[in-house]
Amino acid sequence: MEIGRKNWTSRNEYPSYGYPMTPAILRTENRRLEAQVAELREEKKALEQQKHSLLVELETTKRELTLKLQEAEAKLKDLIRRIHGPSSEKIDLKQHLLALESVEADQQIAAVVQPEPAPIPEAPKARVKRGPRRPAPANLPVERLVHDLPEAQKLDPQTGEPLVKIREEITEEIDYRPSRFVRVQHVVPVFASPTKSCAPVQAKLERVIPQSGVGTGLLAHIVISKYADHVPLYRIEQIAARQGVTLERSKMSKYVEQVALLLTGVKNQLEQRLLQSGYVQCDETPVKVLDPERPGAARHAWLWVRHAPTAQTILFDFDPTRKQEVPLGLFPPDWRGVIQSDGYQVYENLAAQRPGITSLRCWAHARRKWVEAVDNGGQTVAHVLALIARLYQVEAEARGKPFAQREALRCDRSQILLAQIKSKMLQAQVSALPASKVGEACAYALKRWDELTRYAEPGFGHVEIDDNPIENGIRPSALGKRNWLFIGHPEAGWKSATIYSILGTCKLLKLNPEAYLTWVLPKLASGTNQSAGLLPHDYIELFKEPPKSAVS
Predict the structure, then answer these.
(1) Which helix or strand (DSSP H or E) is residue 361 part of?
(2) Are residue 503 and residue 445 in the same domain, yes or no?
(3) Has residue 237 been placed in a domain?
(4) What is the full DSSP assignment across 477-535?
(5) Which of 530, 515, 546, 478 shows the shortest CA–CA distance to 87?
(6) What's the pLDDT tens digit per position in 292-345?
(7) Looking at the domain assignment, is residue 252 inside a domain?
(8) Mapping DSSP to helix (H, G, I), strand (E, B) and coil, where does residue 12 land?
(9) Which of 230, 304, 278, 280 is nearest to 469 (CA)?
(10) Euclidean distance between CA atoms 337 and 275, whole angstroms
(11) Listed residue (484, 532, 474) closest to 508, CA to CA
(12) Which residues of the chain have pLDDT under 70?
């Protein structure tokens, strides 16, 4: 045995194996242990990879949940603002000015030589001015109430001689007398020959609704009360009952239908006027209608609205659906012109299918997306909103000018602002998450950029920057359906559409609709549906100036 070598055959050296450890066995055992260590290392590596994957997945999930939380918080803030905040989308002017200063500084650094529009002047602080009281309107009837002295006080206390009136002091005030019903007796004299050589003759009695027992003024009052003042028929019934007059809801509903039938010809004439203008703004608003297949249940139908700013005409059409076929039927196949709308896809499809139609979009809808992103967008949103504010400043300066001057002003100033807005949006889109408010605002505007900027191109001086006028025209129907809640039957929707068309056009013309209806209904009833020359525009031309009052 060599010195220094252990006795491998001794069992006492390796008591745990129970058998002699030869070098071959030891090498085999070492290889087995090394294999186990390698296997453990692989398992450790796999576990580390699994851990890394889980960490990456957890981080991704965390980011997604954080994004969803931010999106939910933004929606909650937006909902709270819609419910409790002001309905206006105005932004603080100082915030706009601060953003504009930053934009101009960036432009100076980039050495971009462009004509600078005039800066937005800071709004002056409102001052309370208490001027003289406005005089009462001259068209109101005058009632004189004389507050006289008793006869005993009209004597001189010293001499007992009667006092002499030297002047009158008149104090005017506007008062109100409740509307009153009157009984109108239509007296028709009958003439006959004393010799009975001819049949008796008499004047023809023209009535809007024969054998109804109601006059033109009452019919106009019922229609105006429901569709302009948003008073349901059952409330009109209650108001009349307080004055001892019975007006049944079922009969008033029939009166409304008869009035709508008479006004159908006027609406058709208004539609021709609208289509001939060549520029139409389109929108739609939902309205509830009772479903005849499910008694007591209501479903959504739609009022499709068309507005011609240059023709001062607005039209409503009722349809149970919001399908693409509806606007296709509102415009003849050979119609050529400009359609301005929001981002609803059916209008884009309409322009794609009709080569003669040019599509425009609404800057108010694009701006609204950026207003919703104010809380989370920071300075980027302020920059974009500030530039959009300058677009509207240009429009304020151009309002009321001839179309050629509006076109020149837009080409000179608006196109520069639009290029700056697009640059800011492209920069914001790179860093913004697609699901964020800023990302949605960028995607909405950039997807429709050609249609949004077309209004500033040559040849479009007659179009508007947005379709806010049509939304203002829709507002009365939105207020009304909160009160009368629903349309009673799908086949009755045309009545509301017809009457809203007439009243909406009267509103555009600042015309008293009750005066117009009182004038036009007898003519329609006696003219066998001849509506030529009976439009609200004709009424104004006939009387030269509209009555002072108008529906708000």
Answers:
(1) strand 357-361
(2) no
(3) yes
(4) HHHHHHHH-SBS-GGGHHHHHHHHHHHHHHHHTT--HHHHHHHHHHHHHHTTT--TT-S
(5) 478
(6) 666 767 788 888 999 999 999 999 999 988 888 888 889 999 999 999 998 788
(7) yes
(8) coil
(9) 280
(10) 8
(11) 474
(12) 1-21, 81-82, 84-133, 291-294, 296, 376-377, 475-486, 488, 528-529, 545-552
- pTM value is 0.73
Report helix angle 493-508 to 513-526, nearest 10. 120
> What is the DSSP code (8-state) at residue 297?
-
Q: What is the 3-state secondary structure (H, E, C) of 375-415?
A: HHHHHHHHHHHHHHHHHHHHHHHHCCCCHHHHHHHHHHHHH
Q: Which residues contact 486 (CB under 8 A, 6 or more apart)?
A: 287, 288, 289, 290, 298
In a domain, 486, yes or no: yes
Q: Is residue 421 located within the same domain as residue 351?
A: no
Distances 197 to 192, 194, 200, 510 between C-alpha atoms, Å: 9, 8, 9, 55
| Residue 313: its H or E element | strand 313-319
How far is residue 133's CA from residue 242's CA, in Å, rounded to a whole number? 35
Tell me if residue 304 falls in helix, strand or coil. Answer: strand
C-alpha–C-alpha distance, residues 357 and 361, integer Å: 13
8 Å CB contact between 162 and 151: no
Same domain, 294 and 426: no
- pLDDT per residue as tens digits for the range 359-399: 999 999 999 888 888 876 678 888 899 999 999 999 999 88
Q: Are strands 313-319 and 190-191 parallel, antiparallel or unpaired?
A: unpaired
pLDDT digit string, tens, across residues 208-223:
888 888 889 999 999 9
- Are residues 291 and 403 both part of a single domain? no
Nearest CA to 368 among 394, 395, 383, 388?
388
Side chain identity at residue 519, one-letter code: W
* Tens digit of each residue's pLDDT (9 = 90 or more) over 118-149: 454 555 555 656 656 677 777 778 888 888 88
The answer to whether 506 and 536 are in contact (CB under 8 A) is yes
DSSP one-letter code for 331: S
Residue carrying structure tokens 């000015």: 97
First and final CA of the chain: distance in angstroms? 121
> What's the total number of domains in the chain?
3
Question: Residue 265: which of 529, 86, 31 has the closest Cα?
Answer: 529
Closest CA to 281 of 344, 194, 215: 344
The packing angle between helices 374-398 and 437-447, to 10°, is 40
| Domain interval for residue 33 | 7-39
